[in-house]
Amino acid sequence: MWVVDRFIKEHNHDLDPPREADKKIPTALIGFRDDTSGGLENLGSVETNDGSHMKRSQESNIGSDWYDVLLEYFQSRQVEDTGFFYAVELDDGRCRSVFWADGRSRFSCSQFGDAIVFDTSYRKSNYLVPFAMFIGVNHHRQPVLLGCALIADECKESFTWVLRTWFRAMSGRHPQSIIADQDKAIRQAIAQVFPGIHHRFSAWQIKAKERENLGRLLSIDSGFKYDYDKCIYQSQTAGEFDAAWNALLNKYRMKGNAWLKEMYEKRESWVPLYLRGTFFAGIPVNGGIKSFFGTLLNAQTPLREFILQYERGLERRREEERQDDFDSSNLQAYLHTKEMIEEQCRRLYTLTVFKVFQKELLDSYGHLGMKISEEGSSVDIWCGSVLCRHILKVFQMVNIRDIPSCYILHRWTKNAKYGFVGDVESDSGGSSQDLKAMMVWGLREEACNYIGAGAASLERIKDLPNEGENAFQTSKYSDKTAAPIMPIRHNKETTSSIRMDESDKK
């Protein structure tokens, strides 16, 4: 037990000058919703933090007047979309970070949530709205929205809350990989919410840091850029990378560069050599995914216009996806060979992914294959998404005429969003209500696919209503009870391990 012996009012050190930020805390924010009975009980989800708020700044990057506008918007969306999810973080009675995802985003995550991008670039670019997004890659290699957040501040607790809330909204589906900034708070939050996940640093942020820490050398010595890129992107083994890295530091006298030292220690999160074997949905390691909202959002976008532009950008992206779905179902790419394997992949893959495969197939003819051993029946090669030219060359050598189904990743096919493929309930910890909402979106997508397939001719369009009515009348659910929950595949990592049995050779 401690006993106060005496108390001296005067400070025994110089006081820090008041920060400008401390002067600008809005009084409306301090008093916002102190009388929470006025509306917080109507929130979709309210969470308080675990007591760590005593260590956090009381200031929020989200203006106090924004919450009323956002909650009004969220509640109106819930009326239209039963799968709409939102949550507000409470800290000592005050609203802080906000998260939301509509039914379509939650359904998309069940198909394309295996590799995600946690994009906080708007937050880092002095935008009026501290906006962050969860982005996936769909079966057309387009960005697809998996949830949004407004983040109150830069501390670990805020990022942890956002990541946990996204995880809960997606019924506990664990991604295989995540691309995000290398900020300490973000790294710690990711490690806490997704232990064991492979966190790859954002290429956009790395390039910005390169300009900041190596800009002078990059601008005056083209040789440094060549050696730097060669070390990072062409090293094939850890020993080769270490040797090239040390040679780089010695040649350009950079051993004392603190940033390079830090990046070497974190090399497993950004150097391609160390990222092999992890699925990133085809997002290049030296690039990124194109901006989801493009130029619709800028640094001067105020809140009400933000909501309007958000809706506009979301609809634009989803219309692009619908158009690509239609094109992949109704158009055929030109075949460059007479190989059965090319026809097989044209039939299965979307147009965009088929073109990626087709390039690998054509490039395989430029490689020379040589048999070096007949022992064993398998070889492990990582290709990421579609089979690479090297594996296709092996297929040609051993006369495999089509690709075994285990090497066709379902998420890249025309039917990625459709069909009874797997059991979502066994893959997630979500509530039955959450699962039902996502399955409703699944049924909507199935119906759109059915209608799109029938729109090829006037005769088919005329037949569709009768076919739908007949199917409903013969269904055991024709008594208008709730439709069954449609199981959805949970995409799992597929490595390109070739096992060549006699049954595979045709």
UniProtKB/TrEMBL annotation:
GO BP terms: regulation of DNA-templated transcription
One Gene Ontology cellular component annotation held by this UniProt entry: nucleus
Domain MULE transposase: 116-208
Pfam families, alphabetized: MULE (PF10551)
Domain of life: Eukaryota
Stored InterPro entries: FHY3/FAR1, MULE_transposase_dom
Keywords tagged on the record: Metal-binding, Nucleus, Zinc, Zinc-finger
Region named Disordered: 472-506
Molecular-function GO term, any one: zinc ion binding
Keyword 4Fe-4S: no
Location in or out of the cell: Nucleus
Family: Belongs to the FHY3/FAR1 family.
Summary of the function given for this chain in its UniProt record: Putative transcription activator involved in regulating light control of development.
Protein name: Protein FAR1-RELATED SEQUENCE
High-level lineage: Eukaryota, Viridiplantae, Streptophyta, Embryophyta, Tracheophyta
